[in-house]
Amino acid sequence: MLTLFSDETEEAGKTYEKLRAGLIRFFHFRGCCDPQSLADETFNRVASKMSAFRRSDDVQPAAFVYGFARKILLEHLRSPRNRESQLEVVQVPDRIGPDPANDAVDEDHAHLQKCLAELSEKDRALVLEYFSRDRSEKISLRKNMAERLGCSSQTLQSRIFRIKAALRTCINRRRISAT
């Protein structure tokens, strides 16, 4: 796969590392909880589709890789498990000894719990209910929620979008103040 980036091994390795760091930032700044795995998945898919890329075309290798990253991001954001992990209040089991890999996730969950507590009762209940179902159940739930609130589905989505933006801002603020 490194031949995609350059014919020289050292230069290709540097380009790979630079792209991987960029992908991790790409996924991190879009709220993904495991950006390293998503960056690795991006490279796995690029490697499986190497035959589709021709260096003679006017397509830059970075653009080719980020094209895959955008698709993987969409898949990740659509996955029901991701939605639950972003908004569900999770009880973390006690563990024996420190685990640095889980500390960041634990910290994010703690930030999320505190930020949910800062929301008004109405907004907190709305966002938790909105993300409480999966697949076909969520469609009917959200339709019923919109009817109950006396608004359109688009209006409900806009409200949820604003609440999620406020949660993201709160979580990021807490991350920064924790460091």
Structural class: mainly alpha
Question: Averaging pLDDT over every residue, what do you get?
Answer: 78
Order of helices and strands: HHHHHHHH
- Biggest sheet architecture: none
What share of residues is helical?
A: over 70%
According to CATH, the homologous superfamily of the largest domain is Winged helix-like DNA-binding domain superfamily/Winged helix DNA-binding domain
**Count of helices?**
8
Tally of separate domains:
2
What does this structure look like?
The chain has 179 residues and is an all-alpha fold. It has two domains: 2-78; 93-178, Winged helix-like DNA-binding domain superfamily/Winged helix DNA-binding domain (Arc Repressor Mutant, subunit A, Orthogonal Bundle), CATH 1.10.10. 73% of the residues lie in helices and 0% in strands. It is built from eight helices and no strands. It has helices at 9-28, 35-48, 61-78, 80-87, 100-118, 121-130, 135-149, 153-178. The longest helix is centred in the C-terminal third of the chain and has 26 residues, at 153-178. It is elongated.
What's the short version?
The protein has helices at residues 9-28, 35-48, 61-78, 80-87, 100-118, 121-130, 135-149, 153-178.
List the helices and strands and how they pair.
Blueprint lengths: L8 H20 L6 H14 L12 H18 L1 H8 L12 H19 L2 H10 L4 H15 L3 H26 L1
Helix pairs in contact: 1-2, 1-3, 2-3, 5-8
